[in-house]
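Page 37, continued from 36.
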């Protein structure tokens, strides 16, 4: 369920598995990845319904604030070469949403990924192809976009680069 587990609330994932007579025996989350120990449930299905739906206006406000923060980040670093480490759908969506409100200078934005299957390919919101991480030498700024592999990426990067967690913007 890598990356996509964040599409579910805890109750939502429990209800989904419950539909197939499965239950989560144990779980934990790290960054945006959920780890589950799932077992077959011999009990009759019971659904958990939350009486109060989430406040969608609050969710929209948080989302818009994140987009605005990202746009301000790009504006504040308009002279810097920015490398996003981790080609993923979340980064693609963030770049697209920001581009709807702000003209992004894509000439200074680059994406790298450790997955060789992604090299030379593109995400929809950026005209530059995905590069090998070896282009990271004397860049101004590295923004880790792959939260699932954040710790591993940071350990592999040289200490003379400024590193930003995309989730912190």
């Amino acid at each position: 369920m890598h990356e996509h587990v964040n599409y579910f609330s805890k109750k939502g994932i429990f209800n989904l598995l419950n539909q197939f007579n499965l239950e989560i025996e144990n779980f934990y989350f790290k960054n945006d990845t959920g780890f589950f120990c799932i077992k077959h449930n011999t009990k009759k299905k019971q659904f958990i319904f939350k009486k109060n739906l989430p406040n969608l206006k609050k969710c929209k406000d948080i989302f818009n604030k994140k987009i605005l923060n990202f746009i301000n980040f790009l504006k504040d670093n308009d002279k810097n070469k920015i490398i996003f480490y981790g080609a993923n759908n979340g980064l693609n969506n963030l770049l697209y949403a920001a581009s709807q409100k702000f003209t992004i200078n894509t000439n200074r934005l680059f994406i790298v990924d450790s997955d060789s299957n992604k090299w030379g390919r593109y995400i929809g919101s950026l005209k530059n192809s995905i590069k090998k991480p070896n282009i990271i030498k004397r860049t101004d700024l590295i923004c880790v976009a792959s939260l699932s592999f954040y710790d591993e990426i940071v350990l592999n990067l040289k200490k003379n680069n400024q590193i930003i967690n995309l989730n912190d913007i």
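The mean pLDDT is 81. Flag for discussion at group meeting. The beta strands are 22-30, 33-40, 82-85, 109-112, 141-144, 163-165.
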